[in-house]
C-alpha cells in the first residue's frame, strides 16, 4: 500500500508542472535581417530580444519556485530518488530555456554585426 501511495504521489508531483502556472514564453516572432533592416527595425528587434530575456528569466524563476513547492508538498513521503528525478526534470527545463534564449540572442547579435557592417560602409 505504501508503494502504491508513493507511486501516486510521485505521479501527481511530476504531473503538476504540466498544468502549472509557468507557461513557456514564445520566442520573438521574427528577428530583423541586418542586411536590409532599418534602424527602427533593429531597435524593435532588440526590444523583442530583451522582452524575451525577461520572459525566460521569469519562467526559470517560476519553475524553480514550482519545484520548491512540489518538494515541500511531498514532504517526508518523497523518496530521495523521487526528489532527484524532480530536480533533474526541472534542471532540464531550466537549461533548455536558457539554451533557447542564448540561441535567440546569438542570432540577433549576428544580425547586429551584419547591420553595422552595412551601415558603416555608408558613412
Key attributes of the depicted protein:
mainly alpha, 76% helix, rod-shaped, disordered N terminus
Structural account:
The protein is mainly α. It has one domain (2-122). It is built from 3 helices and no strands. It is rod-shaped. The N and C termini lie far apart (77 Å). The model is unreliable at 1-19 (pLDDT under 50).
Topology summary:
Layout: H1 2-15, H2 39-74, H3 80-122
- What is the tally of beta strands? 0
Secondary-structure-derived class: mainly alpha
Helix content bin: over 70%
Largest sheet: none
Count of separate DSSP helical elements? 3
Unreliable sequence segments: 1-19
- What is the typical, i.e. mean, pLDDT? 87
Separation of the first and last Cα atoms: 77 Å
Outline: rod-shaped
Order of helices and strands: HHH
How much strand content do the residues show? under 5%
**Tally of individual domains:** 1
Radius of gyration: 21 Å
Entry summary:
The protein is 76% helix and 0% strand.
Amino acid at each position: 500500500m505504501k508503494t502504491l501511495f508513493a507511486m501516486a504521489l510521485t505521479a501527481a508531483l511530476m504531473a503538476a508542472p504540466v498544468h502549472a502556472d509557468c507557461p513557456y514564453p514564445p520566442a520573438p516572432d521574427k528577428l530583423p535581417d541586418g542586411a536590409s533592416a532599418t534602424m527602427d527595425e533593429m531597435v524593435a528587434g532588440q526590444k523583442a530580444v530583451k522582452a524575451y530575456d525577461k520572459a525566460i528569466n521569469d519562467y526559470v524563476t517560476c519553475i524553480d519556485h514550482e519545484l520548491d513547492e512540489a518538494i515541500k508538498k511531498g514532504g517526508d513521503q518523497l523518496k530521495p530518488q523521487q526528489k532527484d528525478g524532480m530536480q533533474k526534470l526541472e534542471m532540464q527545463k531550466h537549461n533548455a530555456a536558457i539554451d533557447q534564449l542564448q540561441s535567440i540572442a546569438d542570432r540577433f547579435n549576428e544580425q547586429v554585426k551584419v547591420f553595422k557592417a552595412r551601415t558603416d560602409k555608408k558613412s
